[in-house]
Each structure stands twice: as C-alpha cells, then as structure tokens.
Amino acid sequence: METNKSLPVANSERELILMNISGQDKAGITATLTEILARYNAQILDIGQADIHHTLALGILFKTDSNKSGEILKELLLTTSAMHVQVQFSVISEEAYQQWVHKQGKNRYIITMLGREITAEQISRVTKIITSQRLNIDSIRRLTGRMPLDKTEQPRAKGCIELSVRGNPVDKTAMQKSFMELAGTLNFDISLQEDNMYRRCRRLICFDMDSTLIRTEVIDELADRAGVGPEVRAITESAMRGEIDFCESFRRRVALLKGLDVHVMDEIANNLPITEGVGRMMEVLKRSGYKTAIISGGFTYFGNYLKQKFGFDYVYANELEIGPDGKLTGNYVGDIVDGQRKKELLRLLAQVENINIAQTIAVGDGANDLPMLSEAGLGIAFHAKPKVKASASQSISTIGIDGVLYFLGFKDSYMSDNIGTQYNKET
Fold first, then answer.
1. pTM, rounded to two decimals
2. Does the annotation count 245 as an active-site position?
3. Which member of 25, 189, 208, 369 is catalytic?
4. Sign (positive/negative) of CA torsion 114, 167, 137, 86?
5. CA dist 304 to 158, 225, 308, 312, 369, Å?
C-alpha cells in the first residue's frame, strides 16, 4: 500500500483534508470509508468517484476538528490497507478552499465529442484548445458503451465522451470555430454548449425531413417517376446550396410534376430510405417526454407517413394539389414552408407547448434550415451541406441521427437494451 510518509499535522481548531483512493474497485469501499467519517462527525465538503475498467479513483474532501484528525486518519489507513487500495492524504488550506468555492460561480460548458471512434489525437487537440481558452476540465465521462476491439464485429459502433469545463473563455466564438475546423480535419463531431438550466430541460425537437430523417429528397423521387428527374434534381441541389430562392425553386419543381399519378406517392413512402438511428432516437425521445415535430420543405404526405411510423407529434410541410382525375396538377395548396416559415413554426410550437425558445432543438441539413437552426436553443446541422455546416454551432456528420441523443447528455446505459429493435430492419 502506498501512503504519504507523514500524516497531516493539526495547526488550527479545524482541518480540511483531501483523501484520494485508488486501486481495484470492489463493493463497499465508499460505504466503509464514509461510515468512518460519520462516526467522527466529519463534514464532507466535496466527493467524486470514477471507475475505469474496474479501477477506482475516489476523492473525498472533508472537514474535521483538529483533535480528531489523527484518529480518523489512522483508522482510514488501517481500513484501506485491509481493503488493498492505495490512499493519499493532503491538508487543504482554508484559503485554497475559498478560492475553489469562488470558481464555482464561473461559467460551465459541456463539450461533447462523437464519432465512430474517439482517438487520442482528437482528445489531445480538443483539450489543447480548452487550455488555450484558459478553461479547466472538471470531469470527463463516456456516454457510449464500451468500444469493440474488432470493428468488423460492430461496424456501426460509436464512441462519445463528454467533458465538463469551467471558466470564462478568452474568445468563445474563436473556440467554437476551432472546434468545428478540427472536427472536420480529424473526422469526428463536436458540440459546445453552455451548461445552464435550459440545456438540462430541453422539451421540443424539430426535424427537417428530406436528407435528415430520410436519406433522399422526395421531390427528386417524384420527379424520377414523372420522367423529369435531371431537371428537378438540378434545381433541388442549387436550392439546397443556397444559390437560388427556395420558394421560386419549389414552384418550378412542383410544376414539373404535373400529371403524375397520386398512387406513386404511396409506393415511394413505403420504400423511403430511413436515416440510421431514427427509430432508436424517437423511442428514447418519446420515453423521455420530448415533443417532436417534422418541419419540412417537402410534402405532408410523406411527413404524415413518418409521423405514423415513428410517433412524431406534429407535421408541417407543403401540400401538393391533386386533381379530380387523381393526378398532380403541378400546383400546391397553402403557403410554402421555406426557411423563414420553418423559423416561424418553431416559435409557434414553442408557444403552443408553453416552453422557452431556449428549450428547443432543431436539426436539419439544408440552407433553408438555417433560420430554424439559428432560432432554436440548440441547432444541429446533420450531414449538412458545406454552407450550412460552416454556419452551424453544432454538427453531426460521422454517425446516424441518434447522435443527437448524446448532444442532449443521454448515456447508452440509461437506455434499455431493446430500444429501437422494432425498427432495426428500417434503420
């Protein structure tokens, strides 16, 4: 057993002592040590524990009367020796303790790193940015399950760690930019969020549909069936890049669908390529009490299909006009759901649900999603176009859409093993 050579010496009426325990984890260590402290009426000022591959790291900062400290430390030494764990004691000055307490008032941030794997280089580069911004890392925790040794066994395995940091960054905007550039270079995703009350009580999450919840643009699928695929696809891509006005591009594309039989929509809906992780994500969100919405520049027919399949609460999209002959007229019904309308609908739903806009989340991939992403308390660019990713504060590009759950602080261990199994074939 390793201990300090000398025990702390009493020099006042009370002492603040930090006890650090390390060694093989086993049941009852924390209970036994805190029981000893309780017998001496010691006051625990701070406590933290972590377990990495069955190896324990436990720290307890306690206050005790000086005339009791010798007996407490002797008993703790004997007990830890019998339990075959290492212990170190340090006396903390009251001045140092007050400085630590003062730091508790500083801003806190949560930095989430996410990808198919998390490497030492990624962590090293991220923590260097944190240090350069004069922030201190309080804790690091893993949100995903343990990584497989052989990736071929679990090709869709993912890794995620969450860092809690404290302090006032030198330049928050520059830090955010550095994180996003680094994530693009080293092929991982990263999120920087202020750790405030709103982050802990998000309540509404709104999704774009095409190229977000599904891996296609439905209007392109319709155009292929109508024999105008190349023309419509060229307009779609230009609009998503932000090169032409969305409303104008929408009118032009819908007009090209004139004469298409409405039964084609049912065929397309039943064969939509669902984005990886949608089923798992939706089941977790519903179990956790989130309200969910599809706010799409696509079409209500397909949004309602996803609503029925996955249990979304709201759908807002564009309505295609159908003639008496059961064919598309080339027109639409009502207002176009463009970028500005998406932003308005997000605010409307927040009012309907009686929540602060800071409690909302928006997820999308295209230029017409930017107003919604900027308005939401947390805007996430998902496998987004370059212009969108460059403008977003958070992005996911390396894994499925269930990565959103980690940005919200969910751990794999919180979730039932069978979550999402009913959707495995679809996702």
1. 0.80
2. no
3. 208
4. negative
5. 30, 21, 6, 9, 20
